[in-house]
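Field guide to reading this record: the first block holds the primary sequence, the second block holds the structure written as discrete tokens, and the final block holds curator observations. Each block starts with its own label. This record concerns EFHB C-terminal EF-hand domain-containing protein, catalogued under organism Chelydra serpentina.

BLOCK 1 — SEQUENCE
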Amino acid sequence: MVLRNYDDEQRKKPDGSEPSLPEDAEIKTNDGSLLKDEDLVPKEPGTSEKTPKTLTRPTDRVFADYRTTSSQYNATVGGLPAACYPLYGVPTIRSDIPAPRIRRISDRTNYGDEANAYALLCPSVFSEKGVYERDFFKTRPKAEIARILRNIGVSISDQNFEEVWKQACMKHHRGEVCVESIRNILDEIQASHTKCS
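BLOCK 2 — STRUCTURE
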């Protein structure tokens, strides 16, 4: 049994003739088509028969330093901040309104001061000890910060502490100092010493 092309039979008119365009119909040129002449390449070298060229993807290229992004997330001590990789989904943090000082139990709005899923699954050393972000950014007097530094084992002379305190005061427009600003100043000093040596 010989199979014939079903589409060929369907295209024929009931009287058996081939379909044709009406005489008043416009024939479109290549101007509005999706496939342009520059998108066509020869099917084989030396022939006039053309085929659409294959589209390339960015993943088709092989890079010498190929690394997956999942291997880069928190691959080093400290890890990447959340701003370095895309977050998916609808943002649920209300950054357009300030968080109330006293929150009600029924207030389920996330003002950005709550932990995300990563912080819950892999808590930092600080949160395991009960020290949170609000504790780092709380304004503290000079004596309290000096006591905190001594208690955590930072050996710093009074003269050096005064310099660090002055630099931290200059960073804030009101001259307020918190533990995080002192940490940043100490990190800058340590980085400048390691660059020099």
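BLOCK 3 — OBSERVATIONS
Residues 59-64 have pLDDT under 50 and may be disordered.
The radius of gyration is 34 Å.
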